Task: structure prediction
Amino acid sequence: MQDGLMLIISGPSGSGKGTVVKKLCGIDDFALSISMTTRQPREGELHGKDYIFCTEEEFFATRDSNGFLEHATFSGHYYGTPISYVEEKIAQGMSVVLEIEVVGALQVKNVYPDALLIFLVPPTFEELRSRLKDRGTENDDEIERRIRRAKEEMEELAKYDYLVINDDIDTALEEIRGIVRAEKLKPKRSQSKIDIFFGNNDK
Ligand code: 5GP
Result:
């Protein structure tokens, strides 16, 4: 990978990662990867903007033609990151952000070891439960499934680079931006600056 950063944000449903990612893309120069999913759209969600909503057949066809960078199941539905968009942006030296769950995040880390993995959580489990209830997009069974999944996901926390607590969305956003700024200064992500330093910038 050259100077572009592959940023992955994971965290339980209700952690606020969708909001943080959208704000991040509005401020900084990140390309947002749009996932394919077999889940039904929620009210207000748009095809091609929030997700590429697809049938299982379409999902399997993409998977079988190696069209995913990673894919996973979540709460009975399939989710996957189309590889073409991510590879195109990374090849252009752009930074890309993926908002995906833990199994997929660790698959990406295998392919792109320099991917930056950030895990976002609310301050407490109780807060998580009440955020899920308040947003009213899932029924009680689904909320309990998502809470159980959140506990499982947190067992993989040590494989992430950073943990950000989302008590206040703007503070969490600034913490993530701070992490990204520092990461971009790492020598391994600064090849073009090093080339300029040595006068090799046409390479
Ligand atoms: P939701 O149904 O709430 O939109 O998403 C459920 C979970 O799937 C969330 O943790 C979300 O980050 C994750 N997710 C969304 N897109 C992808 C994807 O392309 N790959 C993987 N592995 N997870 C995804």
User: Anything to note?
Assistant: The longest helix spans residues 169-184. The beta strands are 6-10, 30-32, 36-37, 52-53, 68-74, 77-82, 95-99, 116-121, 162-165. The mean pLDDT is 93.
